[in-house]
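User: Second chain of the day. Same drill as before.
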Amino acid sequence: MKLHDARKVMTEADLLITKSEVEAAIARIAQELTSDLSESNPLVLCVMNGGMIFGGQLLTQLPFPLEIEYIHATRYGHETSGSTLEWIVKPKADLKARTVLLLDDILDEGITLAAIADYCRQRGAAAVLMAVLVEKLHLRKVTPGMRADYSGLEVGDRFLFGYGLDYKGYWRNAAGIYAVKGK
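Assistant: Same format as last time:
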């Protein structure tokens, strides 16, 4: 993607959720996680690259001890679709008997998060929970009815970017959630 094309995408995009609305959603998730996990010594796995901004803002609002690692698994790369899960960085911590919290930018079809959760369970995690900033509402989930345990915002079935979500590698840094025009 050329820089000119990236700028055009932003110029034409629809702002769906403002920065202040995103921040309020992150604060709500932090309160829910504090209530549910403050006594569990969780291992938090931030899914890169999408979960970086969400995770960074969420984690500073969790006033209890926890361990943090990052993982990197992708289906898309810099494309807008993909099907094969590619592991770039797997968890290094021992997952056995741990409560694992996965942080990611979006639950779309759920293929990536489901595969990561299965990996954690296979390595002995006592519980695997998912927290996402955005959950898309559609019927194409990898498992019918799949939902995140903690979800900040629900949106329709459009191609989104901003706050960690990208469009062909660009605009993860956009302050708000945007939809690509016509998608």
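Residues 19-160 form a domain with the Rossmann fold fold (CATH 3.40.50.2020).

User: Great, on to the next one.
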